[in-house]
Amino acid sequence: MDETAVTIVQQPKKVIAKKGLKQVGAITSAERGTLVTLACTINAIGNSIPPFFIFPRKNFKDRFLFSAPTASAGDTNPSGWMKEENFVKYLKHFVRNTKFTKEKPCLLLLDNHETYLSIEGLDLAKNNGIVMLTFPPHCTHKLQPLDKAVYGPLKNYINTAMTSLLVMNPGNIAFPK
């Protein structure tokens, strides 16, 4: 399992233009960005459970998961980052979407962050056959394949989709409230 922050506002890409031009036009969003934390869990053979989102809000609304993959779950935290309470909800989401038991346990690899170390979370993991193993400090960049293999292409795809949406519908983008 690993987390990443995903912007909900398009990031402008580079524009190719003739050398020497002073002004080059491109449609971009003028909105300031907000980050949503995305927690993904993928096993060694590439299977995954639905994502878990953490929104930078005080109260969770079902509409936050509009068009999200089926069985996705989410929670809120004013900072938008995962805290102990959010991790416990993530673990419950993990248990709902897997079939592990004490007799058939699983190994859940995590980065070495205090967020994952609440008594409630550790008890929930133990009671459901989840063995949590954390990476040593300062090693996750080498040991977290999700960062390069999943999150990099995902963020690029999201940005490309937002750019296409802006180009096809200039000034007419509205999201459900």
Distance between the termini: 30 Å
Order of helices and strands: EEEEHEHEHH
Q: Say what oligomer this is.
A: single chain
Which range does the strand content fall in?
Answer: 15-25%
How would you describe the overall organization of this protein?
With 177 residues, this protein is α/β, with parallel strands linked by helices. The chain is built from 4 helices and 6 strands, in the order E-E-E-E-H-E-H-E-H-H. The strands form 2 sheets. The protein has a 4-stranded mixed β-sheet with strand order 1-2-3-4, with helices on both faces. Helix 1 runs parallel beside helix 2 (119-127). 16% of the residues are buried.
What layout of secondary structure does this protein have?
Layout: E1 2-7, E2 35-40, E3 52-55, E4 73-76, H1 84-96, E5 106-110, H2 119-127, E6 130-134, H3 140-143, H4 145-168
Parallel strand pairs: 3-4, 5-6
Antiparallel strand pairs: 1-2, 2-3
Helix pairs in contact: 1-2
